[in-house]
Amino acid sequence: MAAADPPPRGEAAPALKRSASIDRIPADARRILHRLAGDLWGGDVDPGALAVSQLRGAMTNEVFRITWPGGEAEGNGPRKVLVRIYGRGVEVFFDRADEVRTFECMSRHGQGPRLLGRFANGRVEEFINARTLSAADLRDPEMSALIARKLREFHDLDMPGPRDVSLWQRLKRWLGEARDRCSEEESNQFQLNKLGDEISVLEKTLSGLQQSVGFCHNDLQYGNIMIYEETRQVTLIDYEYASFNPVAFDIANHFCEMAADYHTSTPHVLDFTKYPDTGEQRRFVEAYLSSAGKKPTDGEVEELLGLIAKYTLASHLFWGLWGIISVSHRH
């Protein structure tokens, strides 16, 4: 297991597509597509005439782009939807029922794609005609400011349920899963016997600090951020890991993602020379805090920057444990 490379987490970075048969789509999903043809475009279409392309790069789900024939020729723009078939065995990472409720709530809030239908093991979503960001985009000053403002909006969403921080319980649960799946040799190699104490120390230290808690994305890599080029509007997608957490953790994770490129031959290797420097961090935090309509003080900026630096440690633990579990799951 130790020698295997963990897969990239990119859920929405369909750099490559391949044709697929409509038979790959479950029958109950095909019935939804047939209904949508009438509800959205007032037509009846042979399901066999639908163009089906599987989007590559998704790990936890199978994702298909469905295109209706003739839509673009009629001048109405492309008629496309997304069919997402849920993967198996991901319950170790998140509760699928919670993720579905989050997606539905996001849809009602006007965030991300609209929900068009649900079937037994998946859903049909609006196809977003926006561009998925690249690794390089995260370093662009204008793009970074847009992401910062969007992230503040995301954190301030009025989501249902208790606002309890999920980070520490999730880390402890994942550590238990990692221990169960590893041999004694692997456990020693990853020093899993020490991580429980490290998580507890980090929790005690960080939980005692004054900080803002919001609804966090928890996986803000470039493949989960899209932009409408004409309006420069940013949207965040894929909420499998979303939950209430300290907002500094979400920003810390995003900063760590600036060191990642999941479209290389070594997607699991992070290049921390690309981690944002002090100036980049400050600009992001200033854009984040000022998006509420009030210019932040230097003290407020420094306080959040200090918290973010500490929460990078939690981010490394978070995805390190994820990688160990993911590799064992694949094998």
Which key features would you list for this structure?
331 residues; alpha+beta; Phosphorylase Kinase, domain 1; Aminoglycoside 3'-phosphotransferase, Chain: A, domain 2; 2 domains; six-stranded antiparallel β-sheet; three-stranded antiparallel β-sheet; 9 helices; 11 strands; disordered N terminus
- The CATH class of the largest domain is identified as Alpha Beta
Oligomer: single chain
| Largest sheet entry | 6 strands, antiparallel
Q: Number of DSSP helices?
A: 9
* Spatial gap, N to C terminus: 8 Å
H/E element string?
EHEEEHEEEHHHHEEEEHHH
Radius of gyration: 21 Å
**What's the name of the CATH homologous superfamily of the largest domain?**
Aminoglycoside phosphotransferase (APH), C-terminal lobe
Helicity range: 40-55%
Pfam family, one: Choline_kinase
Protein name: Choline kinase 2
Organism: Zea mays (Maize)
Family: Belongs to the choline/ethanolamine kinase family.
